[in-house]
Amino acid sequence: MPLCLVVALAGCSPKARSFQGSGGAGADGDGDQGVGAGDPGGGWDGEAPACAAETQATDCDDDNPCTADACTAGACVNVPLDGVPALPSGQIAGDCQILTCAAGQPYPAPDDADAEDDGDPCTSDGCRRGVATHVVAAGSPCGQGRVCDAAGACRGANGRACGGPRDCASGKCVDGVCCDTACHETCMACNVERSVGTCSPLGPGVEDEPGCALDDKVCDGAGACKLAPGRRCHRHESCASGVCRGSGRCGEFPEE
To answer: What is the pTM of this model?
Structure first.
């Protein structure tokens, strides 16, 4: 069979262009076709079927992805392929395998580039030595305001409203939102404006009950609980405002 015909039957893909039959096809005086050495049926049980060139794709299909099927002089020929990938009709996308041909017979081999998407946004899909892998992709987005947790479940991202820890990928629901930490320290919160979802210091002068609403103390804006303005002091460090006046009382917070 001419090589160009074998190429055409292989679909002319980059891999298929090197397809070459393991034997040649020739015609005898009666017009019967031969395939390879002593294989006139080209894989058929008995005499090769009659065919027409315009319907050769169906007339001569022997269901073997490792033969190039054609109609020549009204009879089917099926050239065995060798040392090349099987035809696309025999490949299964996403099975981490590739069929290759040896003397017209298909054999599987690992193909780690042939990964299947399992449809789960919380897994990273791949192949390893011909076996499918689906690894949890913690932190990956899986919907609006949602990310994957360490177990591969799609839950609320930090800053999303929550009713309990199971709503959050971080496993922490603090101050009504998913938070990056447990955020239980005095003068810290997870719903501070402009940093919702991240445990951050409460603003200066805020009373954080119960630890920083007693003994005339307020938050200093840096995560510490100190004396409120107007309270008696002995040094600047004792005051939430950072100023202990000469009168022995904490000064007001500076205006922003």
So the answer is: 0.59
The residues with which 93 forms a beta bridge, in sequence order, are: none
Tell me if 204 sits within 8 A of 192, measured CB to CB.
no
What is the amino acid identity at position 173? Answer: C
Which residues in the chain belong to E strands, given as ranges? 25-27, 33-35, 67-72, 75-80, 97-102, 105-110, 123-128, 131-136, 141-143, 146-148, 154-156, 173-174, 177-178, 188-189, 200-201, 217-219, 225-227
**Chain centroid to CA 245: how far?**
61
Evaluated on CA atoms 28, 30, 33, 38, the torsion sign reads negative
C-alpha span between 125 and 134 (Å, rounded)? 5
- Residue-wise pLDDT tens for the chain (256 aa)? 333 333 333 333 333 323 333 333 333 333 333 333 334 344 566 677 888 888 888 889 999 999 999 998 889 999 999 999 999 989 999 999 999 999 999 999 999 999 989 989 999 999 999 899 999 999 999 999 999 999 999 999 999 999 999 999 999 999 999 999 999 999 999 999 999 999 999 999 999 887 787 778 999 999 999 999 999 999 999 999 999 999 899 999 988 6
Residue 222 Cα to chain centre, angstroms: 40
Q: Please give the backbone phi and psi of residue 167, each rounded to the nearest 5 degrees, phi first.
A: -80, -10
Pairwise CA distance, residues 220 & 218, whole Å: 6
Alpha-carbon span 196 to 160, nearest angstrom = 8
